Amino acid sequence: xxxxxxxxxxxxxxxxxxxxxxxxxxxxxxxxxxxxxxxxxxxxxxxxxxxxxxxxxxxxxxxxxxxxxxxxxxxxxxxxxxxxxxxxxxxxxxxxxxxxxxxxxxxxxxxxxxxxxxxxxxxxxxxxxxxxxxxxxxxxxxxxxxxxxxxxxxxxxxxxxxxxxxxxxxxxxxxxxxxxxxxxxxxxxxxxxxxxxxxxxxxxxxxxxxxxxxxxxxxxxxxxxxxxxxxxxxxxxxxxxxxxxxxxxxxxxxxxxxxxxxxxxxxxxxxxxxxxxxxxxxxxxxxxxxxxxxxxxxxxxxxxxxxxxxxxxxxxxxxxxxxxxxxxxxxxxxxxxxxxxxxxxxxxxxxxxxxxxxxxxxxxxxxxxxxxxxxxxxxxxxxxxxxxxxx
Length: 391
Fold this sequence. Notes:
This protein is mostly beta strands. It has strands at 17-28, 31-39, 49-55, 61-68, 76-86, 96-107, 110-120, 128-129, 135-139, 142-150, 153-160, 165-171, 178-184, 193-204, 207-217, 226-234, 239-241, 246-247, 255-259, 269-274, 287-288, 290-291, 295-302, 305-312, 318-322, 328-331, 337-341, 346-349, 352-355, 362-369, 372-377, 383-387. The chain is globular and about 65 Å long. The model has no long low-confidence stretch (mean pLDDT 95).
């Protein structure tokens, strides 16, 4: 099939085959590493392995060979997870990259998901798996570990997907883990699953707040896939939410977003999968799926509460400004149309809606690539992400 006019210019997509969740976001050896869910053998989901790319600037990416391949012999699929730098040498060499991933085993008896480690002593190019799980609950839906540093220890958040709970664990050596607490919230639809948690601090006006990300499917905007976040506090043992959940992105194609570990400038940078489960038409191309533009996260106050802000790492290439109190409509392409109601401050793109705090005025910054559109409002509290294969 070759390449096409839809190949992104400044979003990562593999040269070929399927991509979904970003995994193992970590800075090491003077570059940003992006691992991701990947099918090395086709353009549909399957044969889950960790693909690998790296970048000096978060815009231009070099794709590397498969980092952690599926183990077909043992029916082990390599699901989502995280990566850290082992500065103590607890698992591998001092400074080794350690990946923590969900190993998913399928058999006629059912599915089992456990958390395992793999160690790389060559900067993430190849990994050696540790044979035994580090956390095992003997469950079918227990996945997506995010490990992060906390003081002089490690913490892990991992999803009990069908119970709508996030378990928090501690370790001093990455190998032995103690359960500390659980965080959950009521979901009206029992079919909803929680996935891909992340827990991290962000400062606002000199005060530290903690943000918990949870991806949900279905139950997102227009009952598709989506990621919500809670703002609260974390004492090393328990996360306490001080807010109702808020959507990270109000569009159709933003899921499984997680943030970088070991970021050298102490910035909190997020990348998400720019696609959705079952909602996004995708033509037959050499590849399927892409990543969002990386976004620097911050906090601000909006609607009387604390909200995340998302600043794309590249400048938007289209700006829409409205200073009058008239209803506004702008057609981005043959598939996507932006509408704004100045009476309510509601921004809508093809039925996906968000409310701006400042009504009667509008500034939207758009990142338009060959097969995607990402939209950000002026104070960066609202974003919409869409894959779009249109003229």
